[in-house]
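Margin note from the TA: students keep mixing up input and output lines. Inputs are the sequences; the output is the structure of the whole complex. Example:
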Amino acid sequence: SLSGALSGALRKLTKAGVVDESLIKELVKDIQKALLLSDVNVKLVFELSKNIESRAMEEKLPKGVSRKEHIIKIVYEELSKFMGSDTKKEHLPDKKGKVVLMIGIQGSGKTTTTGKLARFYQKRGFKVGVVGADTWRPGAFEQLKQFCAENNIPVFGDPKEKDSIKLAREGVKFFKEKVSDIILVDTAGRHREEKGLIDEMKEISNTINPDEVTLVIDGTIGQQAFVQAEGFANATNVGSIIVTKLDGSAKGGGALSAAAATGAPIKFIGTGERIDSIEPFDPKRFVSRLLG
Amino acid sequence: KKITEKDLDKILEDFELSLLESDVSLKVSEKIVNELKKKLTGEKIGLTSNKKDFVKIAVEETLTEILEFKKYDVFKEIEKKRKAGEIFSIAFVGFNGTGKTTSIAKFGKLLLDKGYKVVIAASDTFRAGSIEQLSLHAENIGIKVIKHNYGADPAAVAFDAISHAKARGIDVVLIDTAGRSEMNRNLMDEMKKLVRVANPDMKIFVGDSLAGNAVAEQAEKFSDIGLDGSILTKVDADSRGGAALSISYITGKPILFIGTGQGYDDLEPFDPKWLVERILP
Ligand SMILES: Nc1nc2c(ncn2[C@@H]2O[C@H](COP(=O)(O)OP(=O)(O)OP(=O)(O)O)[C@@H](O)[C@H]2O)c(=O)[nH]1
Ligand SMILES: Nc1nc2c(ncn2[C@@H]2O[C@H](COP(=O)(O)OP(=O)(O)OP(=O)(O)O)[C@@H](O)[C@H]2O)c(=O)[nH]1
Ligand SMILES: [Mg+2]
Ligand SMILES: [Mg+2]
């Protein structure tokens, strides 16, 4: 297996007393493979491996640190440059009536994640309101309502309303009047080629003026992650990213590109279909998964 | 003159990069390149021929071979059974959110347009709103849905729909199933059970064209039920489409259709040439 090859190369390096250039090159090749398998952008992988290799060759080994630990540290530092922060935070609402707009490509997990996020905050004592502003997908409101029902999370929506801007505005108003701590607004899936839908998203954002726009990105996304995220970043100010479906075989390397394209930090990850299958983003764990 | 391994290394390295950037999985990209290297090393190439073009033609042939492998006309198969007075059932399976439910609606409409009688089985009895979503789609195109309650046995719903079809002279049964992770043993077993009980004539894998290496793992694990073909969705998101190559290579079965949007008419027959041109610079 690849992780076997990677740890094998690392073991050889640990045994070597001095900087063995060929061993480092071999290790960098294995790191490249691991990152490609994890869907990190191809150009980024080669850029990263050049930096990792030159740092590994040139940097003096810090006191009390093994060669292997040093290289892992370098890899981690290079990857962390894209992740916004290197510590796990819980990202709790910092004001009353905080409005969060959930956007993303079709099927990425927005509706499910909206419910998960609502439950996450509810468990921590916050008063949450959910607005179903997807007027396109058949049964969208029903899905959100059913998913939130067993935790008594209030969901505002109207399957008969075709105007998503009106629905979003009324939903936010409804929960602001109820003095909710946090208001999550679910929207229809869309991608950068659908100009009409991108314009709709801009209009929703301009109307409800969210405190945060969260891009929900499918953990399985491949090499298109950067350009797709860029499409969203060009249309609206993306404030955070949530990477879903990391319970599959995908390692989520595309999320790095999304973070790079939007300049936004990854705040949560989705790890399953249940309402509690969400965790605050842990950069260290994420990188170790990327490396296999 | 003959083409050497050294010539090939540099040229194939560039081709492998374009495969990877087109979302062909790493494992499949490496296999394709290795096969090409074996095939082309020592091959005679005309004195005036350009080595790069020579390899490019070989790459195009190899990719086309993979994509055209076991190609067949699904409507021919359906028609055979209809003439024999038998119903034709198709189960749609795949990872979460890839477009199974929407593809069933599109395919159902396609069948209606061709004059077939169709019924749909709501065998996703798990996900919130799945039955309502499917029922609304079916209502829009004018197809009956056989559904039970949430939590019902998916295999029982499929079996029920097939019995209904047999009794009512329905030609085709389309079975919608829940999205599932290839890493979830229980859900993969549940799918195997549905296939055992309902014994569909076809099992179609629905894959997201925006997905990367995970699609190779999905194709491998979902192949355990014996897939007959695949549908690749969200191609309108300007995906490069390399996932088609990974899926075809791993399953040994063709891509039958591509999803090109969210409307009922956004399902097109897959054209290998179109994809090869997209992948190769
Ligand atoms: N395995 C897994 N499935 C997930 C996860 N998050 C969401 N899903 C599933 O992915 C599928 C799509 O989720 P939705 O919430 O409907 O996605 P969406 O972005 O709202 O889709 P659209 O509204 O159509 O754009 C559903 O089957 C969810 O249960 C996750 O973290 N892991
Ligand atoms: N742009 C585009 N969107 C698509 C395409 N196919 C499906 N979708 C959208 O993708 C989202 C998910 O589609 P579904 O049909 O619910 O996917 P699914 O596989 O049934 O999802 P689960 O049952 O939750 O696993 C919906 O918003 C669809 O409209 C396509 O070809 N192009
Ligand atoms: Mg949704
Ligand atoms: Mg579905």
